[in-house]
Amino acid sequence: MDTAPVLLVIGIHRDELAFGRTVAESLDPRKVQVLTIPEGLSGKRPLIDQQFKYNTLHQALYRQLLPSIQGRHTLLLDLHTGSDPAGPSADLICADAAWRDRLAFEIAARPALAAQNLRIVPLGTVSEFPHAHTVIPKQIWNNPEFIYLGMEIYLPETASGQTAGRDLAQSLVTLVADLAAKPFPTSTQQRLAVSRQMHPQTSHEQTAGDGVPTFLPGRRQG
Ligand SMILES: [Zn+2]
Fold first, then answer.
1. Could you say which of 71, 107, 112, 145 is the most buried, measured as most Cβ atoms within 10 Å of its Cβ?
2. Exposed (0-12), middle (13-18) or buried (19+): which is 168, by Cβ within 10 Å?
3. What is the model's pTM?
4. Can you tell me the distance from the alpha carbon of 130 to that of 133, in angstroms, rounded to the nearest whole number?
5. How far does residue 14's CA lie from ligand 1's centre (Å)?
6. What residue ranges define each of the domains in the chain, with the CATH number in brackets?
7. What would the mean pLDDT of 105-116 be, rounded to a whole number?
8. How far, in Å, from the CA of 46 to the mean position of ligand 1?
């Protein structure tokens, strides 16, 4: 594959594009190719009678990404933002259990990242979380040809907090790109160790609210 292993998509929600650009600007193009959605969707929570239209628009936009990913990249990284006055914090949302374990292991091994408020969230119907609801089509988040990883960075409103959020996002994108470029380790012991380590955190502390990764801007529950 002569393109970068990771395709980073910014601007699915237009209000989040400016932050996405700041994250994208210093990335290594050999590792991460950036796809900018110039006119993304509104990320505002739809009124009840607008829900169908909102879902339809999202599904159409995500499906348009398929030709950009398939056969070109091993991982689709979908960047979003939300708000967290105590942030920055982040959710990494992925349907692939091996990838979730791998991320947990690598984050735990990096003190600067392990100290951050990060959450690795399963996506899909088979999980301990009620994550069946998503506006993203299944052919995006569960495709045999590539991994889907949603990254939601929750930002405080302060300038320093925004900068810290950008730095966090860049660190995470770089980590993901490095992992995507490497062969996949599948040590059962490693995965079991990570599993024990991460599940206490993910199973209760941060699953208040609806617990569903809807990719809508909002206050982080916790
Ligand atoms: Zn978003």
1. 107
2. buried
3. 0.82
4. 7
5. 8
6. 6-205 (3.40.630)
7. 96
8. 13
